[in-house]
Design a protein that fits this description.
The protein is α+β, with helices and mostly antiparallel strands and 264 residues long. It is built from 14 helices and six strands. The chain folds into two domains: 129 residues, no CATH class; 130 residues, 3-Layer(aba) Sandwich (Aminopeptidase), CATH 3.40.630.120. Pfam families: GNAT_C, NAT_N.
């Protein structure tokens, strides 16, 4: 059963102007089936084909919402199989579904801040939630990887980081993904280079301490993208923004740390 599109849009809590605009976007059935087939069978060709459309950002936003709604039964079925674990942690399959799919809303807001327009441009990453390849439990996202027997932890950008909540989320995920051997995370938040910029009681510092950081890579300036560029576009410049700006000016990007969760 496909979830009602209007209910999904309402639950994702888009801004009113975005919700209204999404509802005006029409989706031709033949075109929808074409892109749905590509989405699941040849994702790289899907991205290439989307890129050729003049209205690709608007089209992509509506398409991903439709695909997520159609996937409601598949995603929640997996969650209902372990409903008791969710219930013990104050969650239920439907809540987890909407929290997971909210990544569409998060990245739509990022697109709007960058361009001033409604749409979705981060198609590669957001496809994970649409396909049900990851789940969001509370503050964190969890992506099981059968090839490595590890669950990858991701940190959405829509809320502040509460380390106690994160620990609870990881404990829940450890029960939920009981066949996997451990958890890892790759983020600018795990770069030891930022520790000198953080106060002693910083939640970012506490979060990093949960992991055995094994290496740092510098192939993508994630800290600059997530902290400096986002703060500038939001008009919200924190003390971390100022310190990181000075650090980048003097030393370059602090890099992305890779760490393994210590407790399991």
């Amino acid at each position: 059963m496909m979830l009602d599109i209007n209910r999904l849009i309402e639950k994702l809590d888009f801004a009113d102007d975005v919700s209204e605009f999404i509802n005006t976007i029409t989706m031709d059935e033949t075109e929808y089936k074409k892109y749905k087939k590509l989405f699941y069978e040849d994702f790289m060709l899907f991205l290439k084909s989307i890129k050729s459309k003049e209205d690709r950002y608007l089209f992509s936003l509506k398409l991903y919402i439709c695909l997520a709604a159609e996937n409601y039964d598949l995603i929640t079925k997996r969650l209902y199989e372990k409903e008791s674990i969710l219930d013990d942690n104050g969650l239920n399959p439907e809540t987890v579904y909407f929290d997971t799919i909210s990544d569409i809303c998060i990245w739509q807001e990022v697109h709007k801040r960058k361009t001033g327009e409604i749409g979705l441009s981060e198609l590669y990453w957001v496809a994970n939630c649409v396909k049900g390849d990851l789940y969001r439990f509370g503050r964190l996202q969890f992506e099981p990887d059968k090839s490595t027997d590890i669950v990858h932890i991701h940190i959405p950008e829509d809320k502040s980081l509460d380390v106690n909540e994160c620990i609870n989320n990881i404990n829940l995920a450890n029960e939920f993904f009981d066949r996997y051997s451990g958890f890892d995370c790759e983020s600018w938040i795990l770069s030891p280079n930022i520790l000198s910029l953080l106060p002693k009681e910083s939640n970012i510092r506490k979060f990093q301490a949960l992991f055995d950081v094994q290496h740092i890579k510098y192939d993508f300036e994630q800290a600059s993208e997530r902290v400096l560029n986002e703060a500038y576009s939001r008009g919200q410049k924190s003390s971390l923004y100022q310190k990181l700006k000075e650090y980048v000016k003097e030393n370059g990007d602090p890099g992305i740390g890779y760490g393994v969760y210590k407790k399991f």
